Amino acid sequence: VVPRAVPIVEAMAALVIIDAVLAQDGRVASSAQLPPGPVRALPPSMRRADDPQAEAEKAAHQAGEKVVDAQ
Predict the structure, then answer these.
(1) Full DSSP string of 23-61
(2) pLDDT tens digits for 28-42?
(3) Where are the domains of the chain?
């Protein structure tokens, strides 16, 4: 039993890791299909880090200014 335990544990760990990778890929693919309107309604802290408008709103919020959406 002991000689077979290491490959079994390695295989189970690989399955857990690939499951997490596929779940994350699914979330990324789903979010790419969302229209920008509902995403713009989210607070800047919940938007993607590479969203330039979210970055501008965060900076304005920290400076105490109010940002009006141009769209």
Answers:
(1) HHHHHHHHHHTS-HHHHHTS-GGGS-TT-HHHHHHHHHH
(2) 898 888 787 777 787
(3) 1-33, 42-71
